[in-house]
């Protein structure tokens, strides 16, 4: 995280707040996640540096950059075209070449590049989507906020020897996941 300039991922007028440990507003009514939460989610993936990771809800692209530092490659999906194109431009300027960022609905994952050594969802779902679990490699971890606008839990769901083990990492508050899995 020390290598990723967070000020490059926030609106210019918020650059002075980029190193405060809180979420900040970005375009399209969305938020760049709080750095502590980015760290907690990234740590929970237990990356070794070679895996392919799926990120759903790329937003500003900040979390994408953190993942690109620590994983082999990152497939990232963002439903807002404007946010996606800003994120693609920033990540290219900063020299990240192991990122494939696409516009679309990631609520059912991205079968094309599955399986993933880790999946990180940055928007809250009402339940753990089965499609995402199915796209997780053996021993992979899915990190996802589950709940509604009033209360959410950040879950780490790990596949271990064919079993699914769920751990609650923290309470949290994310914008909602919107898509086929979660109709608006
Ligand atoms: N990690 C990002 C978080 C952005 S907020 C950052 O720190 O900048 C969550 C993002 O998820 C929003 O940009 C929202 O548009 C996006 N999102 C919500 N539902 C989605 C879906 N079904 N597919 C892809 N992106 C989605």
Radius of gyration: 15 Å
Give the strand line-up of the largest sheet: 5-4-3-6-7-8-9
Largest sheet: 7 strands, mixed
Secondary-structure-based class equals: alpha/beta
Helix content: 10-25%
In short:
By secondary structure, the protein is α/β, with parallel strands linked by helices. The chain has four helices and nine strands, in the order E-E-H-E-H-E-H-E-E-H-E-E-E.
What does this structure look like?
This protein has 184 residues and is an alpha/beta fold. The chain is 20% helix and 31% strand. Strands 5-4-3-6-7-8-9 form a 7-stranded mixed sheet. It is globular. The protein binds S-adenosyl-L-homocysteine. Residues 30-33, 56-57, 59-60, 62-63, 77-80, 83, 105-107, 122-123, 175, 177-179 line the site of S-adenosyl-L-homocysteine (SAH).
Itemize the secondary structure elements and their pairings.
Blueprint: E1 24-25, E2 31-32, H1 35-44, E3 52-56, H2 62-70, E4 73-78, H3 81-93, E5 99-103, E6 116-121, H4 130-134, E7 136-147, E8 152-160, E9 163-172
Parallel strand pairs: 3-4, 3-6, 4-5, 6-7
Antiparallel strand pairs: 1-2, 7-8, 8-9
The chain binds S-adenosyl-L-homocysteine.
Summary tags:
about 180 residues; two-stranded antiparallel ribbon; 9 strands; alpha/beta; binds S-adenosyl-L-homocysteine
């Amino acid at each position: 995280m020390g290598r990723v300039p967070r000020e490059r991922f926030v609106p210019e007028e918020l650059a002075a707040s980029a190193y405060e440990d809180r979420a900040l507003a970005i375009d399209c009514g969305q938020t760049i996640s709080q750095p502590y939460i980015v760290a907690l989610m990234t740590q929970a993936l237990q990356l070794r540096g070679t895996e392919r990771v799926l990120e759903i809800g790329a937003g500003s692209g900040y979390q994408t950059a953190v993942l690109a530092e620590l994983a082999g490659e990152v497939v990232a999906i963002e439903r807002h075209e404007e946010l996606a194109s800003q994120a693609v431009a920033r990540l290219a300027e900063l020299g990240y070449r192991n990122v494939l960022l696409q516009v679309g609905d990631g609520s059912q994952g991205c079968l094309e590049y599955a399986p993933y050594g880790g999946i990180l969802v940055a928007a809250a779902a009402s339940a753990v989507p089965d499609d995402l679990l199915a796209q997780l490699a053996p021993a992979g971890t899915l990190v996802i906020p589950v709940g509604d606008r009033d209360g959410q839990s950040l879950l780490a769901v790990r596949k271990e020897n064919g079993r699914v083990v769920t751990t609650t990492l923290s309470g949290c508050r994310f914008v909602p996941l919107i898509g086929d899995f979660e109709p608006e």
